[in-house]
Acetolactate synthase small subunit (Ponticaulis profundi), 187 residues
Amino acid sequence: MVTNTPNSPQSAYFIDDHSDDSIVRRTLAAIVDNEPGVLARVVGLFSARGYNIESLTVAEVDRRQHQSRITIVTSGTVQTIDQIKAQLERLVPVARVTDITMAPAGLERELALVKVRAATGSNERVEALRLSEIFRARVLDVTLESFIFELTGASSKIDQFIELMEPLGMQQVSRTGVLSIQRGLPL
């Protein structure tokens, strides 16, 4: 008679190998043909399979070759991310897909415009200006009742700035979504 203990290799119930099940966040950049319906096909691929898009940015990057760059921030297991990349690469209008997060020379930035209500002479007004200097946010507009700040950086930096501005009277936020690029020359 064989008895199974928690460390016994005979029992599959005690195998605890969930190392591949951890959720990772990835930034994918896809160079696509700039033609009608391409964005809908890419977004449809995510929607049909139940994948979430956390950030989506699209712009034409080469007018002569009629190509655009779609930057997608998503999350899932490593296997899910690999599956997303493989499915994106199979779409006909997609020229190439790069995982910027995994690239050793990858850069990610986001732009935000933040409107903060701060009346003239108030402590909140002084504090908002002080925080904007710390975060290197640029003042785009000033009125007697409010400021509009422009802030560029990592998404986490923008999140922190917004969190600190909320108790000071934050009114509105507009964010671009993540932009990405690789340092150096392409391989």
